Amino acid sequence: MSKPTKVEIAFMGMGNVAQAFLQLLARQHEWVESMYGVAFKTVGIATRRHGSVVSSTGIDLRDCIDVIEKDAHLTTIPDCIDAGDAPGLLDVATPDIIVETIPLNPHDGEPALGYIRRALDKGIHVVSVNKGPVAFAYQELKTLADLRGVQYRFEGAVMDGAPVFNLVEYCLPGTSILGFVGVLNSTTNLILGGMESGKSFEDCIDEARRAGIAEENTSYDIDGWDAAVKATALARVLMGADVQPHQVNRAGIAEVSPEHLIQAAAEGNVIKLIARGHAVDGGVLLTVRPEAVPISSTLGSVRGTSNVLILHTDLMGEVAIVETDPTIEQTGYALLSDLISILKT
Ligand SMILES: NC(=O)c1ccc[n+]([C@@H]2O[C@H](COP(=O)([O-])OP(=O)(O)OC[C@H]3O[C@@H](n4cnc5c(N)ncnc54)[C@H](OP(=O)(O)O)[C@@H]3O)[C@@H](O)[C@H]2O)c1
Question: Is residue 41 annotated as part of the catalytic site, yes or no?
């Protein structure tokens, strides 16, 4: 059997999602090699508090996870060169692919947006789970990627590894997306469901943190920012809208009390944080707010960390995507599926 071609990757961010991806890759790498004749070699890792390193010989990812778990500096990994900070990594390394998993910034998408722009401009493919850059600059980044002959893929930006962007791109050719409605934020769904069963708001947040599904800044989940940025990303990519997250008519779940949930249940309803988008004259109107929906409806039936997105289309009527009880592994899968999409071209 011939040796697999080495594809060089570098990580920007090495937290919950990147580590879940690495665990998945450890299980799937033989399949990737046999299907695509490719083996990944990690030549750089950039973080915020743990430093940034590069290595032309390849970084042992078990060493990397060990260092992060001990809260040590990445430069303690053998044969690694200090790259300074995250932008420094792009100064000294030109991998084939950047895997970007740094935290959400719902106000301008930075610094991830700048890192992605820079990587694409250098002719590096980018796979990302970060919804911020998609919501602020999808059209710009896609144009830049096309110009440089590389790909910008971000399936994990909405509903983890469940196909949303890929579904429309690969499976609904010629169909226009007229609007959408969904439960897109796992943390608030977990909190509302937990409160229904008598748990406190704080206990539910702790549960989401322990599961690694909460945003680093949990107010971005609770105040509806995460869902608003996802709605904006959907409107930009699927509907061609030029819209910003702060234009979303947004309310979070902080004001939802146990009494509201009891009242909704008495009426056969359940309260969910619902994101909606629909085409209006020359644009897309976006809302994110808690709504009472029938418990037996598609929107009302998603429990725990589950998500649902219903697309309103011209040729296919309504198409629903349901992701049941996703964990961090499904977000890791989004990165693997995006990498495979790149390998296929
Ligand atoms: N968790 C989920 O279930 C989920 C699902 C879908 C999408 N996402 C998205 O995935 C991304 C990452 O989530 P996560 O849960 O993996 O976050 P996380 O555990 O907080 O990890 C974030 C990583 O990014 C690094 N980082 C932070 N700021 C940086 C900067 N300015 N430059 C370089 N590196 C930086 C951190 O380094 P230090 O540790 O050294 O500070 C850490 O390694 C977010 O955009 C989130 O919205 C998450």
Answer: no
